[in-house]
Target: Antitoxin
Amino acid sequence: MTTVSIAEAKNQLTRIVQEAETGESVHITRHGKPVAVLVSESEYERLRTTQSEPKSLWDTVLDWRNANNFDWLELTDEEIDCWRDKSLPREFAWDD
Model:
């Protein structure tokens, strides 16, 4: 990561563009505070496409399930049933 002031960026634009092309992000500051970042075209496209189309919760769950191998997870109904709470339910009354 390279950091340059706006004045340096103006004077050395060719050099910082070449840095960005090689995958190096260039942070540009004004009075020592960051104001912009110069990145390569490919990095910009990657960031733009991943943020412009947010995934639904279900798509995220499917991606997670596909990324993790759950082939070994074959539970029977009895195994799942034993996890359930068998205690008596709370008392409840509809108040009018």
In short: The helical segments are 6-11, 13-21, 41-52, 57-67, 77-81. The chain has a mean pLDDT of 87. The longest helix spans residues 41-52. The chain has two domains: 2-49, 58-83.
